[in-house]
Amino acid sequence: QQLGESVLAIDFTPDNLLRLHFNTPFELARGWARAEQDGGAWQEGALRYCENLDFLPFGRLNGAERLEVQRQCRQQPERWRDNLRQLIAGDPQRWILLDVPVGDGVLAQQALQLADSVFVLLNPDANCQVRLHQQTLPNDCRFLVNHYSSASQLQQDLHQLWLQTLSGLLPVVIHRDEALAEALAVKQ
């Protein structure tokens, strides 16, 4: 944003949690999937956060609607590729960030196929370490340690292990910020 480049963040996660980082009220059901379920265009779900930063939440859906979105994605596997090409053609300087759900669901698979670069966030805990080796990871992905606390011996040990075993580990960490966690909790 400081460089004057436009950014669009798209939430591909049905949990619709990325909205919390964009001060979007929980009551607001708006998003690309919500717009499509209501018979509109996916672009109608977009929100302007600030100059050069737009956000496209997933939208709030019930269980049946989520299944319908998955079915539509399976039937039209090229849909998001075409949507992103349309965006890029309209603004070639735009950065497009995709928040992709964990797992091998249809949305995750399709979004990962579209990405030029993939960053996997690692929470330095035993759960993350176990799950890291129980999934297929995208080729040439990069890893970023998130919620790191240097006061935790376990987190220090995991970070050292990852430095030795993950070739794509970025040389920076995002430290745990209790104020951020509290701020996100208040937005619920």
TrEMBL record:
Domain of life: Bacteria
Pfam families from the UniProt entry: CBP_BcsQ
Cross-referenced InterPro entries: Cellulose_synthase_operon_BcsQ (IPR017746), P-loop_NTPase (IPR027417)
NCBIfam families given in the database record: cellulose_yhjQ (TIGR03371)
Name recorded for this polypeptide: Cellulose synthase operon protein YhjQ
Organism: Serratia marcescens
